């Protein structure tokens, strides 16, 4: 697990390290500069002639220190000071004076020379206003220059809080982020401006972030073995959950198949699919491991008996939004007592009956994409995109549910828990059925005994890692939803083998 702080929390970590631990700010700056040069070497950049563009704050101080180190290696380093000398931070002034004393060129106008590397050290993580005036013009000119582009900590002009572009932003192909990758370089469009992000340890203490709900986090592949539900030698299919999948509608047997198979691949012991009669033959042929129960009309008593049988319920994948589907959803939300995953059409139906969710007497995982979430919230997709963390906080404060907000950067949120931000996966996963697979994976983990929040987080991450596995085998264009199921199995096998 690693933290994804915004600028506010990163500045608090800096202050804590300096004031409570006693590491001077200028020492941290030296560590940052050394790591920056190391990464340039590791990434095999030709930095024989580098332009370092420095602002007045500590990000600019990092830039001055980097210039000194490059000069010490015999490289050509030129500093373009873009800030205001009267507003320089103390540390920036110290580093600037050393650079001047060494005779390293410092200019205030953009040279016409070409450089092998253009290094951005203008603004740091504290930027929270629009970039305008001469800074706007300068960044525009820097983006048009030849040479490889590198940013110190975060591209100048990117909000560290939400990845938005504050008027204009430096376009880097490499960003070296100090101590933690910042949330703004994970979220889009900040991710596109940051390029490849390498995060390096410079000695800042972030241990306190474990207890700060506002600080987001993400997972890495090495975390999976420790998060999987345990399987015992002395067990049987009932040990790993009886799952009821209320999925599919006429012409939508595929959604029922994909979600059920994904739940099986993720460890569920026994699955019963409750679906329209027209899907029986298809599902029995595609997934003989599943029990298939069918309906031609809504039968409340029959459904209630199935809910009593189940240890976990999943409803919504390909369900449709007709009268029968609406009655199925209402009964599940009102009568179910076990963990329940609600996806797709289940969410669309729920958006018309939000009061039901508030009164639900079961642990719930909702898996909406942006449009479905906007329907639940009663807002536009653009408003949700601009204020997703605020909207999620409001939603989970009102409703007792884990919310998996699916997007290029999926977020898992629950009241009083940290937000998980998924950084794995790729564009090859943008195919029909991908969401059905995710719902199935989360359902299978719930059946294995994980709580709702933990199942949602691990399910999202496994699903994303499966996309990486599938892309390796098939490329960006040819991945299908069923390939993601195969990938989940491979990721879980790899994790199990690492546990020994």
Give descriptors for this structure:
seven-stranded parallel beta sheet; nine-stranded mixed beta sheet; 500 residues; 43% helix
What does this structure look like?
The protein is of the alpha/beta class. The chain is 43% helix and 16% strand. The protein contains 19 helices and 18 strands. The strands form three sheets. Strands 12-11-10-13-14-15-16-17-18 form a nine-stranded mixed sheet, with helices on both faces. It has a seven-stranded parallel sheet with strand order 4-3-2-5-6-7-8, with helices on one face. Helix 8 (253-265) packs parallel to helix 19 and helix 17 packs across helix 18. The radius of gyration is 26 Å and the shape is elongated. The two termini are 21 Å apart. The model has no long low-confidence stretch (mean pLDDT 97).
């Amino acid at each position: 697990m690693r933290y994804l702080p915004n600028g506010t929390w990163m500045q608090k970590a800096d202050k804590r390290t300096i004031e409570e631990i006693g590491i001077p700010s200028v020492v941290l700056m030296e560590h940052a500069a050394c790591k920056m040069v190391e990464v340039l070497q590791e990434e095999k950049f030709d930095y024989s002639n580098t332009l370092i563009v420095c602002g007045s704050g500590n990000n600019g101080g990092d830039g001055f220190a980097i210039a000194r180190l490059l000069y010490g290696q015999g490289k050509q380093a030129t500093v373009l000071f873009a800030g205001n000398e009267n507003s320089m931070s103390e540390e920036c002034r110290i580093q600037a004076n050393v650079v001047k004393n060494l005779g390293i060129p410092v200019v205030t106008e953009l040279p016409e020379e070409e450089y092998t590397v253009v290094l951005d050290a203008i603004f740091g993580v504290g930027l929270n206003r629009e970039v305008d005036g001469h800074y706007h013009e300068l960044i525009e000119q820097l983006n048009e220059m030849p040479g490889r582009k590198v940013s110190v900590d975060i591209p100048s002009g990117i909000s560290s809080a939400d990845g938005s572009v504050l008027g204009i932003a430096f376009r880097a192909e490499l960003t070296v982020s100090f101590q933690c990758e910042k949330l703004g370089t994970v979220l889009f469009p900040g991710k596109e401006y940051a390029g490849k992000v390498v995060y390096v340890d410079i000695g800042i203490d972030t241990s306190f972030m474990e207890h700060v709900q506002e600080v987001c986090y993400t997972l890495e592949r090495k975390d999976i073995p420790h998060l999987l539900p345990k399987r015992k030698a002395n067990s049987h299919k009932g040990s790993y959950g009886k799952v009821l999948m209320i999925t599919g509608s006429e012409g939508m047997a595929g959604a029922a198949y994909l979600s059920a198979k994904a739940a099986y691949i993720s460890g569920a012991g026994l699955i019963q699919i409750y679906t329209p009669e027209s899907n029986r033959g298809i599902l029995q042929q595609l997934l003989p491991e599943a029990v298939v129960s069918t309906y031609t009309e809504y039968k409340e008593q029959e459904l209630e008996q199935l809910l009593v049988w189940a240890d976990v319920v999943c409803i919504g994948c390909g369900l449709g939004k007709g009268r029968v589907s609406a009655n199925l959803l209402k009964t599940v939300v009102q009568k179910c007592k076990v963990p329940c995953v609600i996806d797709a059409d289940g969410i669309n139906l729920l958006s018309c009956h939000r009061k039901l969710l508030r009164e639900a007497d079961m642990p719930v995982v909702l898996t909406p994409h942006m449009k479905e979430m906007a329907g639940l919230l009663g807002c536009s997709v653009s408003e949700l995109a601009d204020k997703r963390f605020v909207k999620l906080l409001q939603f989970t404060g009102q409703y007792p549910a884990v919310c998996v907000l699916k997007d290029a950067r999926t977020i898992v949120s629950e009241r009083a828990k940290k937000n998980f931000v998924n950084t794995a996966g790729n564009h090859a996963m943008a195919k029909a059925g991908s969401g059905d697979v995710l719902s199935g994976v989360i359902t299978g983990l719930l059946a294995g005994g994980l709580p709702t929040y933990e199942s949602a987080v691990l399910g999202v991450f496994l699903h994303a890692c499966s996309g990486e596995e599938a892309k390796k085998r098939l490329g960006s264009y040819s991945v299908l939803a069923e390939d993601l199921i195969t990938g989940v199995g491979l990721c879980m096998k790899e994790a199990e083998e690492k546990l020994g």
